[in-house]
Design brief:
655 residues; alpha+beta; Rossmann fold; 5 domains; 16 helices; 24% helix; PKD_dom_sf; Tat pathway signal sequence domain protein; Ig-like_fold; PKD_dom
């Protein structure tokens, strides 16, 4: 194959891609040349048989670190389109597409494009345009119109939205999923850390209340301060039902305690912690029960170094301290070296309070000496947990923050000089600002148990698009919500499978539906019907009313969502599974009676829109169980992709 290139003459005569206004995002058209990515180089090309037969073209942009791969299915399979998945971190997604991504594209009549672009959309746009030249040459169809579709989730949603708002003639449609908005980072993580600080000990009872068959009242048993904090984080968008997995929600198993973006805040807003602990309007000084809890969580202790243990080369490896503080939560501790009042540097490592030993992992080792002081504090870590109170958006439409506004709309707490969320959003999206001015058709996909990108985010962006497009909104935009799905993409296994479904199939169907919408005018299923109440997205109970493409499972045990039985007593399960109109048929069902995460298939007969099941099970051991029925619907049962799942769950208490 003779691979095309962007020759010098073309680069010199084509218009240069540039922002439409000073300081704005780059506006990229199908015929402009990006001055930073105008020299694509093909490094290799070969025929590959796995995961499906395709021709792989690998290359890079000269003078940059960016690479790309193009995966071209056989000509008799290609239908004139390409799919392009994006994500801003090469450590999670680089230029090598997964087997599933390649096979999905091929079965959908699309070649696949993927880069190691680390933010924005310019690298991906340049790769997409070059891939069109490659495809035209490979398939020997130089005049054929090639359609393109970009999709990405989480950080990739910023790129996807930036791409579909700021390009024309590159991609024709987009599927942003589990989307972030300009307030998401770092606030969403700090908000959950705030919940951790105050509600960690009450998390198990909150979780039990929101589980199937629970009381339904997560506020029961909380004191007024705890109730106020739960209400605050709930109004901000943390899904109440997501408390079932409180360890993930509160970051109890993360090394940074959800404060990973703290370094960004320190760099941009370096006086925040000092202000938090000294100025009025912050919880560090507030004279209230909540303020007292926050101050009680603070650690600020100066210990004298009584001995320095060194390795054979003389490098310090640990410090023996004269004293240590009482520490309830070791996450977020800072270790700073002093000689009297003079700050010498900082260390990283771990503190053993029982042995009064600090083990060094890095830092300013030359400043370590016996007799000097090590300050141990979490002033920044505690202060960051309520940073969201001081980041009330100035942009209209963020109603989750209304709880921090006075009747006249002004913030009730002091505001920091810089709003960090929009800076991170703009950087990740390539300068885009979530204007809603989409240049192609879009289906946005949100998940109702997402604690990383809150469910209301998708609704907020839908409002931006509606304001921008007006009467054209319905002809260009859909929003689909999925229940029993969280933020994490990919297979759901182990204990997570007892309460969550994999949502990859929804994305695949959305991409296919966008392509059919663009190319053949086939409108996709209607948007999910929902309302946002106090930060919580609520959807109708019935599939016919809910919309979207997810089947709905109505499951009972002995006619209820909660049943108490004796060991050995038979429990009867009844279920009704229904797919929304014009979204396909129910094709599979499977049971997990004991909550093990392992499902056993159930016969359902021929695929159809509504399936009713009835079965029984005997629990022989005492305990509390959450039996689940997993249902799958699909538009094309012959396809390996596009499956939509949901769960029905109940509580069985065996005595």
């Amino acid at each position: 194959m003779c691979t095309p290139s962007l020759n010098t003459a073309t680069a010199e005569t084509a218009p240069s891609c540039a922002p439409q206004q000073a300081g704005g995002p780059f506006w990229i058209t199908g015929d402009c040349v990006d001055p930073a990515y105008n020299r694509p180089v093909v490094d290799s090309e070969r025929d590959v048989q796995s995961p499906v037969p395709h021709h792989r073209v690998s290359g890079h942009f000269e003078g940059t670190k960016y690479k790309f791969n193009i995966y071209l299915p056989p000509k008799n399979q290609w239908q004139g389109r390409f799919f392009h998945k994006v994500y801003p971190l090469a450590t999670i997604q680089d230029e090598n597409a997964s087997d599933e991504t390649i096979a999905f594209g091929a079965e959908s009549g699309a070649y696949t494009v993927q880069t190691n672009g680390d933010g924005g959309y310019r690298v991906d746009a340049a790769a997409a345009k070059f891939a069109k030249l490659v495809a035209a040459s490979y398939y020997r169809e130089p005049s054929r119109r090639i359609y393109g579709y970009v999709y990405g989730g989480s950080g990739g949603s910023f790129q996807t939205i930036g791409a579909i708002e700021n390009t024309v003639g590159v991609w024709d449609g987009a599927v942003p999923f589990v989307p972030g908005v300009p307030t998401s980072v770092p606030n969403n993580f700090f908000i959950r850390a705030f919940a951790r600080l105050i509600l960690k000990d009450k998390a198990p009872q909150i979780a039990d209340a929101v589980r199937p068959g629970g009381s339904g009242d997560p506020y029961a048993g909380l004191n007024p301060t705890e109730r106020a904090v739960l209400q605050e984080v709930t109004k901000l968008g943390v899904p109440l039902r997501a408390w079932e997995d409180y360890r993930y929600l509160l970051g109890l198993d993360t090394s940074d305690g959800l404060l990973g973006f703290g370094g960004v805040v320190r760099g941009i807003d370096p006086t925040y912690a000092d202000d938090f602990w000294s100025r009025p309007g912050y919880l560090g000084t507030e004279q209230s029960a909540l303020g007292a809890l926050v101050r009680a969580a603070k650690v600020d202790h100066v210990a004298t170094i009584t001995r320095v243990n060194r390795d054979a080369s003389g490098a310090p490896v640990s410090l023996v301290l004269g004293s240590v503080p009482s520490i309830h939560d070791a996450v977020g501790l800072d270790f700073t070296l002093y000689d009297g009042a003079t700050k010498l540097g900082s260390l990283t490592g771990s503190l053993d309070t029982a042995k009064k030993v600090f083990t060094i992992s890095g830092g300013d080792l030359d400043a370590v000496a016996t007799g000097r002081q090590l300050r141990i504090d979490n002033r920044w870590a505690v202060a960051l947990t309520s940073y969201h109170r001081h980041q009330v958006p100035t942009r209209a439409g963020f109603t989750a923050w209304d709880q921090f506004r006075a009747p006249d709309g002004t913030p009730i707490y002091p505001q920091r000089p810089i709003q960090i969320g929009p800076l991170i959003s703009s950087s990740t999206s390539g300068g885009g600002t979530h204007t809603g001015q989409i240049t192609g058709k879009v289906i946005i996909v949100g998940n109702l148990l997402d604690v990383d990108a809150y469910p209301w985010h998708a609704s907020w962006y839908a409002q931006q698009v509606q304001a921008a497009l007006g009467d054209r909104f319905g002809d260009n935009f859909r929003i689909w919500y999925n229940d029993n799905a969280d933020h994490l993409e990919g297979p759901v296994t182990g204990s997570r499978a007892t309460r969550l479904i994999e949502y990859t199939g929804f994305l695949q169907q959305a991409v296919r539906d966008v392509s059919a919408w663009v190319e053949r005018g086939v409108a996709p299923p209607r948007s999910s019907q929902y309302k946002v109440v106090d930060g919580q997205v609520q959807v109708p109970a019935r599939a016919t009313a809910r919309g979207g493409i997810q089947p709905v499972v109505d499951l009972t045990a002995n006619g209820s969502d909660h049943v108490d039985v004796a060991a050995g007593q038979r429990v009867t399960f009844s279920a009704r599974i229904q797919a929304p109109p014009k979204t396909g048929s129910v094709v599979a069902a499977a049971w997990d009676f004991t909550g093990s995460g392992t499902y056993t298939s159930s016969a359902i007969g021929a695929p159809r829109s509504t399936v009713e099941l009835r079965t029984s099970f005997v629990f022989t051991k005492a305990g509390t169980y959450f039996p689940a029925l997993r249902a799958t619907s699909q538009r094309d049962p012959r396809s390996s992709f596009g499956q939509a799942q949901n769960l029905g769950r109940v509580r069985v208490v065996v005595n």
